[in-house]
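Progress note, sequence design subtask.
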C-alpha cells in the first residue's frame, strides 16, 4: 500500500517558539497588545511530509507564508488552495482546516499564530490567500526576522510589546492585498500608470481628460478606480500630492511661498494658499512656522 507520510513538525534547522500561556494572558489584558499579539511563531525549511489538521480550528488566526517549494491549504469549504513562493495563507481563528507540504517539492514556510481584538480588521473573518509581490514578500520576511531577533533576546513583556507592533506591520501588508483582491492586475496597472504620470508632472496643471487619455481609460472609470483604491478622485489625489511636495519645500528650503506655488503649477499664490489650507487645515505660512520633529 502506498501511504503518504505525515508529520506536524520537527525539521532540520527549524525555528519554533510558543509563548508561555501566562505571558499570553498578560498580552490579552495589556492596553496596547490586546489588539494584536502572537502566541506561536516559527520557520520550517524544506518541511518534508509536513501536515496539520485542526477539526475545530485554532485559537488564533494562522498566517503561513511560503518562500520556497509548494504546499496546500484546505478549509471548511472543502476547497484546496495550492501555495507557491510568495503566497501567504490566512486561516482565521476557529476555522477548521488542513494544510501540508507538497510531497515532491516540500515548502519552506514562515508561520505565525496571531490573536487580538483587531486582527480581523486587517485580514477579515474568512480564509483566503494573498499573492505577495516580490518587494512585499521581502519586506514581510525582514519584519519576521526582526521579530525573531527580539524574541531570541528573551520572551518578555517588552519583547512581546515590540514584536506585536512588528506583527501589526506584517498584517498591514496583508490588509493591502485583502482590500485589492477584487481588483485585477490590469486595474492596479492603470492606477500606477496614472500616479506615476502625476508624479512626473507635479510642476504642471493637469485635467481629468489628459490623465484618462494617458492611461487609455474613460474618465468615469478612472474616477471610480481612484475613489475605490485611494478614497479620492484623481484630481483631488493630484492636489494632495502637490501639497505634500509643498510641505517638503516649506520644511527643507527658504524659498518663498510664491516660488513654491509656481513650481507646483499654481500661477496664483492666493489660490495655492487656499488649496493648501483646505488640505492641511493650516496656511502655508503657519505651517512653515510650526515646530516639527
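Output:
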Amino acid at each position: 500500500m502506498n501511504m503518504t507520510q505525515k508529520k506536524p513538525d520537527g525539521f532540520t534547522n527549524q525555528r519554533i517558539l510558543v509563548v508561555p500561556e501566562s505571558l499570553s494572558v498578560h498580552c490579552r489584558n495589556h492596553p496596547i497588545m490586546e489588539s494584536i499579539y502572537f502566541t506561536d511563531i516559527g520557520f520550517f525549511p524544506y518541511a518534508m511530509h509536513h501536515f496539520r489538521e485542526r477539526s475545530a480550528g485554532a485559537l488564533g488566526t494562522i498566517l503561513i507564508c511560503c518562500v520556497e517549494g509548494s504546499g496546500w491549504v484546505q478549509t471548511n469549504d472543502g476547497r484546496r488552495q495550492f501555495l507557491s513562493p510568495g503566497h501567504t495563507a490566512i486561516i482565521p481563528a476557529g476555522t477548521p482546516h488542513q494544510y501540508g507540504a507538497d510531497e515532491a517539492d516540500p515548502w519552506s514556510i514562515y508561520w505565525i499564530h496571531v490573536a487580538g481584538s483587531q486582527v480581523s480588521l486587517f485580514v477579515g473573518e474568512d480564509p483566503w490567500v494573498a499573492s505577495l509581490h516580490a518587494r512585499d514578500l521581502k519586506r514581510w520576511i525582514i519584519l519576521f526576522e526582526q521579530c525573531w531577533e527580539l524574541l531570541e533576546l528573551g520572551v518578555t513583556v517588552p519583547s512581546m510589546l515590540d514584536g506585536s507592533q512588528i506583527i501589526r506591520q506584517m498584517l498591514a501588508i496583508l490588509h493591502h492585498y485583502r482590500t485589492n483582491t477584487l481588483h485585477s492586475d490590469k486595474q492596479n496597472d492603470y492606477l500606477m500608470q496614472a500616479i506615476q504620470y502625476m508624479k512626473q508632472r507635479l510642476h504642471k496643471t493637469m485635467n481629468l481628460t489628459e490623465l484618462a487619455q494617458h492611461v487609455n481609460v474613460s474618465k468615469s472609470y478612472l474616477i471610480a478606480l481612484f475613489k475605490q483604491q485611494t478614497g479620492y478622485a484623481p484630481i483631488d489625489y493630484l492636489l494632495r500630492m502637490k501639497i505634500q511636495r509643498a510641505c517638503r519645500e516649506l520644511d527643507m528650503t527658504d524659498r518663498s511661498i510664491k516660488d513654491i506655488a509656481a513650481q507646483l503649477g499654481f500661477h496664483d499664490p492666493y489660490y495655492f494658499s487656499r488649496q493648501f489650507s483646505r488640505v492641511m487645515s493650516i496656511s502655508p505660512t503657519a505651517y512653515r512656522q510650526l515646530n516639527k520633529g
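The longest strand covers residues 37-44. Work on this subtask will continue into the next period as scheduled.
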